[in-house]
Design a protein that fits this description.
By secondary structure, the chain is mainly α. The protein has seven helices and no strands.
């Protein structure tokens, strides 16, 4: 119960863990960085990851399941398109351009990852990164970590 209260304090913008208190991070030009405006660095990036970790463990299981299925659909669609494009290259072109099928496979499979980022989906690798950082920072408990996977 104490963990839930701490998480609610963090999600409501409490000063316990985060260096910024709103739901969106501050713009970098306020800090004098010579980086793009939408790029986080250092403590701000860690805070954004920890904020996402607390939000992920609070998702209901049906939402996690749906987002996992959605990611699987996007990866399957990207993989099918990649194989179709690589297999559709004529033999005479394959002999002259041996790298073309591999290039097409990589290029079209990358669209699956873009679709997951744009339209939603939860990949195991992303959950592993975010939830492991949350666990190492002692922000989420082991039970929440296992349920979040």
């Amino acid at each position: 119960m104490l963990w839930k209260q701490k998480t609610e304090t963090i999600l409501s913008g409490g000063p316990e863990r985060f260096h910024w208190t709103s739901t969106t991070p501050p713009r970098l030009e306020e800090h004098g960085h010579a980086a793009p405006n939408d790029m986080l660095s250092g403590l701000l990036l860690e805070d954004a990851i920890l904020y996402n970790a607390t939000r992920k463990v609070m998702n209901p299981p049906d939402k996690q399941l749906f987002l996992g299925f959605l990611a699987g659909i996007w990866v399957g669609l990207g993989g099918l398109t990649a194989i179709s494009m690589a297999g559709g290259v004529p033999e005479d072109v394959r002999e002259r351009w041996t790298m073309l099928p591999k290039f097409l496979t990589g290029a079209f499979f990358a669209f699956a990852l873009h679709f997951i980022a744009m339209f939603g989906g939860e990949l195991f690798t992303g959950n592993t990164m975010i939830l492991s950082i949350g666990k190492c920072s002692v922000l989420i408990c082991l039970f929440s970590l296992l349920i979040g996977y």
